[in-house]
Specification:
This protein has helices spanning 2-18, 39-49; strands at 26-33, 56-61, 71-77. It has a single domain, classed as 2-Layer Sandwich (60s Ribosomal Protein L30, Chain: A), CATH 3.30.1330. The protein has 91 residues and is of the alpha+beta class. Strands 2-1-3 form a three-stranded mixed beta sheet, covered by helices on one side. It contains two helices and three strands, in the order H-E-H-E-E. It is globular.
Length: 91
């Protein structure tokens, strides 16, 4: 699982770099796991590619992955913008 997840994130990173963006440009990540028991491994690998402020994440157990695939993901990125944490205490 971890090897596949790393490759997926490397692929996303490569596409982002081709368009002048980086992993820090990702604001939304959807992760498709073939087995929900891999969620902790997903979080471990995700931490190798992302840091705070973390993108919003939706993780879904998906039994319709292509045979042999344990992990797929898609990402939404905003290029050319600075990411900041929202002040949730503002009145």
């Amino acid at each position: 699982f971890e090897a596949q997840a790393r490759q997926v994130f490397r692929n996303i990173e490569k596409i982002l770099h081709q368009h002048g963006a980086s992993m820090s440009s990702v604001v939304k990540l959807t992760a498709y796991l073939g087995n929900r028991d891999d969620f902790d491994a997903f979080k471990k690998v995700r931490a190798e590619f992302f840091s705070s402020p973390w993108p919003a994440v939706t993780a879904v157990q998906n039994s319709f992955l292509v045979e042999g695939m344990l992990f797929e993901a898609d990402a939404v990125a905003v290029a050319g913008a600075q990411r900041v944490l929202a002040d949730t205490d503002a009145s």
